[in-house]
């Protein structure tokens, strides 16, 4: 049974305040062994078959745009999909998915993610007031744990997780708490973005999380009159993908209406389903599903 009232945001936030043991720097082998025992135990999410992380390492490359459009496209292909906003400090999923209501809470004190466009959504942006979240690492890790395991996600085929820039607390907490089925890398064709994306890929390889492939955002624009493709940067993406041993799943053009769709809370793929942008995400979604099916068959 779900609660019949909306809980106050402050009441929900209190559930994030759990005690967390800080790890000491430069631990010797014995300290490392003792600390490893206190790490959270990795366990599957109830009712969730696969968890796909959208990551880059670099900010401003379109991770949330990718996560949102991938989620709604997967839902359109018949998958039961959830979308978790892992960016604790700068959540954008509520705006881009047009979700604003505070989650209901069931009789087991689990949050019930609101649904829009056929996708279950959960974000810190639904739990805090308009001010900034000013937290240290332990609280961030506790928040990720609560968003993951303190919510009624199932039944889901795929949970898409949008992640913040960097290679820190959020990424480590995800890999420690739940088994991740794969990582979808996102980058622009600029060398500065690709080099940081490479570091993100190496981090997930270190954590034994497989790489699904690479999505190149903002790679080109297409002329409205002649449909000529105008490249915006020297294409180094393919070179880096080859070095990482992954495929470039799609090269996404810059679309004029993309920003307006995000601000209006209507995913571009839903508003312009016949566009090259939407066609690219149809292809990406198909490849993600195929990757997950192959992974399950091998295991």
TrEMBL record:
GO molecular function: 4 iron, 4 sulfur cluster binding; ATP binding; metal ion binding
Claim: Metal-binding is one of the keywords in the record: yes
Pfam families: ParA
InterPro entries per UniProt: Mrp/NBP35_ATP-bd, NUBPL-like, P-loop_NTPase, YlxH/NBP35
This protein's UniProt keywords: 4Fe-4S, ATP-binding, Iron, Iron-sulfur, Metal-binding, Nucleotide-binding
Keyword 4Fe-4S tagged: yes
The family this protein is said to belong to: Belongs to the Mrp/NBP35 ATP-binding proteins family.
HAMAP family in UniProt: Mrp_NBP35
Name recorded for this polypeptide: Iron-sulfur protein NUBPL
Native source species: Culex pipiens pipiens (Northern house mosquito)
